[in-house]
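Human: I hope this is not a bother. Would you mind checking the protein record under this note? Thank you for your patience.
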Amino acid sequence: MAEVEEIHVGDVGTRLEGVVKDGGDVVDLTTSTGIVMRLQKPDDSRVDHPATIDDALNGAVHYTTTPGDIDIPGSWLQQLIVNFPSGVIFNSDIESFEVFENIPEP
């Protein structure tokens, strides 16, 4: 997951990391043709972001947040969707992370 201690509403440049796993086993991404990081917000809305492969053999990917991505506090879900040339679409295990409020401006 993210390599930060806390994620806050409005954070930009936060690196959300994931390892594509199937029941705890790492999935080799060497032949994948596309990977999406799907985020589900606390209000149940969902958004897909293209993920970048960091280590294909070990299933490691990331997405770096941009303005507007992290817009509400609460418990978020993350799932990685991987496409392979054979037509197989793989959905990873689901992970969760918390987004915190900021201290309001004075």
Notes: The mean pLDDT is 93. The chain has one domain: 7-99. Residues 7-99 form a domain with the Immunoglobulin-like fold (CATH 2.60.40.3350). The chain is about 0% helix and 50% strand.
